[in-house]
Design goal:
By secondary structure, the protein is α+β, with helices and mostly antiparallel strands. Helix content is about 35%, strand content about 20%. It contains 12 helices and 12 strands. The strands form 4 sheets. The chain has a 5-stranded antiparallel sheet with strand order 1-2-3-5-4. A hairpin with a 2-residue loop joins strand 1 and strand 2. It is globular. It binds 3-methyl-4-(thiophen-2-yl)-1H-pyrazol-5-amine (WVI). 3-methyl-4-(thiophen-2-yl)-1H-pyrazol-5-amine (WVI) binds next to strand 1, strand 3, strand 5 and strand 6.
């Protein structure tokens, strides 16, 4: 459904290199279209960032330039690659690797080592959600990649980090108390991974206006979520333990990506599916977690 707009808006040099076909999704800042590279017939995804969709010209430019800088920095099999980049007075056009399987959200409705790489390179995503997790094919077992670095941040050394490296003797208590929350750390992505894992395992979100009396923000700040037994009865205790240890309100107590990758649930073990489950394995344990209030 190539529109006249597509012909008119995309720059001439873009059309010389790529042939646009159809819309395959909608990103935060505009549409995502499928295109073919004319020379190789390779499929690519074209993400459009409309400058007019930002409150001020400067915002669009800063956001797009930060996203482009991050996209150029990353090179990992679990992170979407940037193929090319164009801009006009009205828009930015980012040519991205095409993922046949589309968005995880569609798979969840229907049914990460990338994070470790990002955090090891001092990049935090800050916007992990099903729409930003793409599947390489329609197969049940396929590669999963993280996309949309529009909200990402490169962690630079801060004056607080330098302060905490010096002698602590004369530092006020609030310096230590705020240390875990001043600015963002990679822990924000681990919380989001916990929410993503909760949704993948159960099919519903841990925090939502329709789930409980508290406003969503209060559910989150209290770490208050509900494991509906009928939705979790076939989920292993290790998987539930991983979710519990990611959805911890205190970022200093929350699992890091490295700790999550070392969690028993992700250990590679010979299949035990032929063994009969003990009755109590399905019993819902309710460990009291500091700061998080899980309930049935
Ligand atoms: C980027 C990208 N590469 N491959 C796909 N399917 C996308 C999409 C993002 C958002 C909707 S589709």
């Amino acid at each position: 459904d190539l529109t006249k707009d597509d012909q008119a808006n995309f720059p001439k040099e873009f059309h010389q290199k790529y042939m646009i076909t159809r819309k395959i999704g909608v990103g935060v800042c505009g549409e995502v279209k499928l295109a073919f590279e004319r020379e190789t017939c390779k499929k690519v995804a074209i993400k459009t960032i409309n400058k007019k969709d930002f409150p001020s010209e400067g915002t669009a430019t800063r956001n797009a330039e930060r996203e482009i800088e991050i996209l150029k920095r990353i090179d990992h099999p679990c992170l979407i690659k940037t193929e090319d980049f164009f801009q006009t007075d009205d828009s930015y056009y980012i040519v991205l690797e095409y993922m046949e399987g589309g968005e995880l959200l569609d798979r969840i409705k229907g049914k990460g080592q990338g994070m470790e790489y990002l955090h090891q390179n001092d990049i935090i995503h800050r916007d992990l959600k099903p729409e930003n997790v793409l599947l390489s094919s329609h197969d049940d077992v396929c590669l999963v990649k993280i996309t949309d670095f529009n909200q990402s941040k490169i962690l630079e050394e801060t004056s607080l980090m330098r302060t905490l490296c010096g002698t602590p003797s004369y530092l006020a208590p609030e310096v230590f108390l705020n240390a875990a929350t001043v600015g963002y750390t990679g822990a924000v992505d681990c919380w989001s991974l916990g929410v993503l894992l909760f949704v993948c395992l159960s099919g519903y979100p841990p925090f939502h206006q329709s789930l409980g009396d508290l406003p969503v923000q209060e559910q989150i700040t209290r770490g208050q979520y509900t494991l509906v037994p009928s939705r979790w009865k076939k989920v292993s205790e290790e998987a539930k333990d991983m979710v519990r240890k990611l959805l911890v309100v205190d970022p200093m107590e929350r699992l890091t990506v490295e700790q999550a990758l070392a969690h028993p649930w992700l250990e590679v073990r010979p299949s035990t599916s032929h063994k009969r489950k003990r009755e109590d394995e399905d019993t819902e344990e309710q460990p009291a977690k500091r700061g998080s209030q899980e309930s049935k």
